[in-house]
Design goal:
By secondary structure, the chain is an alpha/beta fold. The protein has 14 helices and 15 strands. It folds into three domains: 2-73, PDZ domain (Pdz3 Domain, Roll); 94-290, pyruvate-formate lyase- activating enzyme (Alpha-Beta Horseshoe), CATH 3.80.30; 296-435, Rossmann fold. The strands form four sheets. Strands 1, 3, 4, 5 and 6 form a five-stranded antiparallel beta sheet that branches. Strands 8-9-10-11 form a four-stranded parallel beta sheet. Helix 7 (195-205) links the parallel strand 9 (181-187) and strand 10 (210-217).
């Protein structure tokens, strides 16, 4: 049962007399314990609710249009608590975080409900047979799974969880029951790449509902004292991963009409290879894992720039801007290429790029999403950086106000004496921020 925090006015629940503080026990005989139960069992047009009010059991019948919201609100989004991770993965990035960050940064979630609702990846080590039954019954699809390796013994070793290998059997059961699966393989050089990577891809490919798989390099910070000895991928190691994944992807493309398996952009950057063309990434199924992100960003920026040029036409020469773009070391050349492209089109726009070295996590961490406010301040103080700074939103938490080290956007503006603009993930947003306008 769950406690109702509030009831939306004019909703079906409000009209039926439900009140804050009521305990919702079941809907149409189905026990309610979390957000998935609530959403799944309240879509019908006729609902029979079992409640407890002031210690007494009551029943309420509700009629509403099918799929309409019932109108109940709870204390948390999931209704109950997030499931925390029970693993001790040798490659866990959170274990490598320095002290002094926001408390929420240190929480490790491993919650299948967030996989369905927000696209989070889960290891399945938190799941029981009854959880699999519920996923199948509710058809919670797709499910995003952090697999890492299909070798059960190796998975147990890498995740330091005795059940890590055993739960791999859930994948076939889910697939056999029509649940689509997106998988992630965090690769550690010399551990789960090479022949182990081929084995994992072969085993995953046998799943009929496999949708996509990303191969992502392990992230290594300067804060690994007492942890398993891992190193960032070497250039040759990255080259080998790309060759292995792409060869298998070619086979999948020929047999199923989709590559399915993709190497993350970071492998291409480490290997000093060109990012593939847009057609290679199909519909970008693993974009959030950094697969094709640079290509997508480039194409979006280019398209928006072409639209601006066509829309403004004779006004192009009148636009005068002085902007500096902030990024991490990994995307430096990519962002510079975009800035150069725009400046050729708009001759009175000055757009420079500052790639920030990550001193907070260590120089081996080069992605923009882990750049901190403190590093930006320390590396830009005393420099000339134009009238405005543009930072990507992935440097900030969801509320768009704080960096990982707790420095606020307002503090950054005050320290550098410059206005800070926040660009969204899409490449078109960056073009808009540089030009200081949006398309009409």
């Amino acid at each position: 049962m769950v406690t109702i925090a509030s009831v939306c006015k004019k909703s079906a629940a409000f009209k039926a007399g439900l009140k804050s503080g009521d305990l919702l026990v079941s809907v149409n005989g189905n026990e309610i314990n979390d957000v998935l139960d609530y959403r799944f069992y309240t879509v019908d047009s006729h609902l029979s609710l079992a409640l407890i009010r002031d210690g007494k059991g009551i029943k309420v019948e509700i009629h509403k249009p099918e799929y309409d919201e019932l109108g109940l609100e709870f204390e948390s989004f999931l209704i109950d608590q997030k499931k925390s991770c029970r693993n001790g993965c040798i490659f866990c990035f959170i274990d490598q975080n320095p002290k002094g960050m926001r408390e929420t940064v240190y929480f490790k979630d491993d919650d299948e409900r967030l996989s369905f609702l927000h696209g989070n990846y889960v290891t399945m080590t938190n799941l029981k047979e009854s959880d699999i039954d519920r996923i199948i019954k509710m058809h919670i699809s797709p499910l995003n799974v952090s697999v890492h390796t299909m070798n059960g013994e190796l998975r147990k070793t890498m995740m330091r969880n005795k059940n890590a290998g055993e739960v791999l059997r859930f994948l076939k059961r889910l697939s056999d029951n029509g649940i689509e699966i997106n998988a992630q393989l965090v690769l550690c050089e010399g551990l789960n790449d090479g022949d182990e990577l081929v084995y994992s891809m072969e085993q995953l490919y046998a799943l009929e509902t496999l949708n996509s798989v990303s191969a992502v390099p392990v992230g290594v910070t300067a804060h690994r004292e007492g942890l398993y000895p891992l190193k960032p991928y070497s250039k040759s190691g990255a080259e080998a991963v790309i060759a292995t994944v792409n060869a298998f992807g070619d086979k999948c493309l020929a047999e199923r009409g989709s590559r399915i398996f993709f190497a993350a952009d970071e492998f291409y950057l480490k290997a000093e290879q060109e990012i593939p063309e847009e057609e290679f990434y199909e519909d970008y199924p693993q974009l959030e894992n950094g697969v094709g992100m640079l290509r997508s960003h480039y194409e979006e920026f280019k398209y928006e720039l072409e639209c601006f040029a066509e829309d403004l036409n004779g006004e192009k020469a009148e636009i005068e801007r002085d902007v500096t773009l902030i990024t991490g070391k990994a995307a430096e050349m990519h962002i510079k290429s975009l800035a150069e492209m725009l400046c050729k089109e708009f001759p009175r726009v000055k757009c420079s790029v500052e790639a920030i070295e990550n001193r907070f996590f260590g120089p081996t961490v080069t992605v923009s999403g882990l750049v901190t406010g403190g590093d930006i301040i320390n590396q830009l103080k005393g420099k000339s950086y134009g009238k405005e700074l543009v930072i990507p939103c992935n440097m900030l938490r969801y509320e768009r106000d704080l960096f990982l080290d707790g420095v606020s956007v307002e503090e950054l503006e005050k320290a550098l004496g410059v206005k800070v603009l926040i660009g969204e993930k899409e490449g078109g947003s960056l073009a808009e921020k540089i030009l200081g306008r949006s398309l009409t």
